[in-house]
Design brief:
The protein is α/β, with parallel strands linked by helices. The protein folds into 3 domains: about 5-40 and about 230-420, 3-Layer(aba) Sandwich (Rossmann fold); about 45-230, Glucose-6-phosphate isomerase like protein, domain 1 (Rossmann fold, 3-Layer(aba) Sandwich), CATH 3.40.50.10490; about 425-450, no CATH class. It is built from 17 helices and 10 strands. The strands form 2 sheets. The protein has a 5-stranded mixed sheet with strand order 1-10-9-7-8, with helices on both faces. α3 (about 55-70) packs across α9 and α6 packs parallel to α7 (about 155-170). Bound molecules: 5-phosphoarabinonic acid (PA5). 5-phosphoarabinonic acid binds near residues 83, 207 and 209. The site of 5-phosphoarabinonic acid (PA5) has 14 residues, from loops.
């Protein structure tokens, strides 16, 4: 269960103002639930946890088993934005920190013989792709290419390179490629049909950044050896909790407070904080979700993320004493899945004997508490989003919670949370500069500008 604690905002806001924003958030929830708001043809994500059929999970597992039978030990997951960040977030959060060195994917339920999952198509760096291919060439490889539109440049370029290698290397290349794309249209759909690739569908009514619980996230997570049934169960719990028309609804609480801080106190930056390096990609996933959903019409809270205590030694100074424009949302993981106790040293040169017998996580918790108090003293309100530990169940809960809260929050702000018109601007310029057929006039105009 995901819990929200707003205690760290108490000294900044008046109860009466918070109540006003809770009222706005409950109205926004009503709009979301009734499907009467902007972008209402993209609400399919709301019921993915309760409506995902067992047969879809079985299909994902069939791919896993088929590739296992072929001895596949490397899966390249190709995609960008919403077609990549959710899977990467889940896999990094659940994997052993040193999985690559140990060849062991999980601290929890993951299968020890799962293939290594690597990501491509999320940048246009030639060096990245060349080095990825060094790895692919050494391993028994397969690929999952994910693109809802089927036409995004970054994944298309990476897929062309990976596909060429697979076709040259393996007689069964088409069985080593799975495409996740639109049910009917797009270049990837056409190619998959032509070549007979196994395909999964990105539902029409689910946008990229809300798609982690569709095959877009589920297949890579299954391939990495993790339990998506538990993930969907955790998400299902939050599907129910976040739909409740109640002031205690955690998504309502979070959406209300962040809008109050933004609109009444001028807090224009929200920093998502975690105290576990495995959650770095939760920050990346969350930034896309909130940035692409809310940053429109010259409005929106700028989403940033940090990993403490690491970044207390870099960003900590600014957060404590720089321009007072931000608030923090701490993803609080209550218990560590692993245990390391600090020993006693007869010399005590480092003067740490006062901690002898303590768990490292106790130090982390005290750092978290000390930072909270310091940042509140420094004028930084703090929201807390807590889960008991890092697990598939709780990660599923966090996905559903943040998606619900994002929809509510954007509606409070008067924004359509489900489109991303601004993303097209760079693409048009890039196509013009690359002299893509059909962009001739733009190419001419942009060259004159340069
Ligand atoms: O959230 C979104 O819709 C975007 O970030 C897309 O996921 C991203 O641009 C990739 O698009 P596609 O899946 O069509 O390749």
């Amino acid at each position: 269960m995901v819990k929200v604690n707003l205690g760290g905002c108490g000294s900044f806001v008046k109860d009466a103002d918070y109540k006003v924003y809770v009222g706005k958030a409950l109205e926004a929830l009503e709009v979301l639930e009734s499907g009467s708001g902007a972008g209402n043809d993209f609400l399919g994500w709301k019921h993915l946890p309760s409506e995902t059929p067992e047969s879809l999970i079985a299909e994902c597992e069939a791919v896993r088993d088929c590739w296992k039978a072929k001895g596949v030990d490397l899966v390249v997951v190709i995609g960008i934005g919403g077609s990549y960040l959710g899977a990467r977030c889940a896999i990094e959060a659940l994997s052993h920190n040193f999985a690559k060195q140990l060849r062991r994917p999980s601290t929890g339920s993951g299968a020890v013989d799962a293939p290594e999952v690597v990501f491509a198509g999320n940048n246009l760096s030639e060096e990245y792709l060349a080095e990825l291919m060094d790895l692919v060439a050494e391993r028994n490889a397969a690929t999952v290419v994910i693109s809802k539109s089927g036409t995004t440049t970054e994944p298309a370029v990476a897929f062309r390179v990976v596909k060429e290698h697979l076709e040259k290397t393996y007689a069964d290349a088409s069985e080593r490629i799975v495409a996740i794309t639109d049910a009917r249209k797009g270049a990837l759909k056409t190619l998959a049909t032509q070549e007979g690739y196994k395909t999964f569908v990105v539902p029409d009514n689910v946008g990229g950044r809300y798609s982690v619980l569709t095959p877009v996230g589920l297949l890579p997570i299954v391939l990495a050896g993790f339990d998506v049934r538990a993930m969907l169960a955790g998400a299902k719990e939050m599907e129910a909790a976040c739909a409740e028309k109640s002031e205690a609804n955690p998504a309502v609480m979070y959406a209300a407070m962040r809008n109050l801080l933004y609109s009444e106190l001028g807090k224009k930056v929200e920093i998502l904080v975690s105290y576990n390096p495995k959650l770095q990609y939760l920050g990346e996933w969350w930034k896309q979700l909130y940035g692409e959903s809310e940053g429109k019409d010259l409005k929106g809270i700028f989403p940033a993320s940090v990993n403490f205590t690491t970044d207390l030694h870099s960003m900590g100074q600014f957060i404590q004493e720089g321009e007072r424009i931000m608030f923090e949302t701490v993803v609080n993981v209550e218990k560590s899945n692993r245990s390391v106790v600090i020993g006693s040293d007869p010399q005590n040169l480092d003067q740490l004997n006062y901690l002898a017998g303590s768990h490292v996580e106790h130090c982390n918790a005290m750092a978290q508490l000390g930072t909270k108090l310091a940042h509140i003293d420094g004028g930084v309100p703090q929201l807390e989003v807590s889960v008991e530990n890092l697990s598939e169940f709780n990660l599923g809960g966090l996905f559903q919670f943040f998606e619900y809260a994002c929809g509510i929050s954007a509606y409070v702000l008067g924004i359509n949370p489900f489109n991303q018109p601004g993303v097209e601007a760079y693409k048009k310029n890039m196509f013009a500069l690359l002299e893509k057929p059909g962009y001739e006039e733009m190419t001419k105009a942009i060259k004159e500008r340069l």
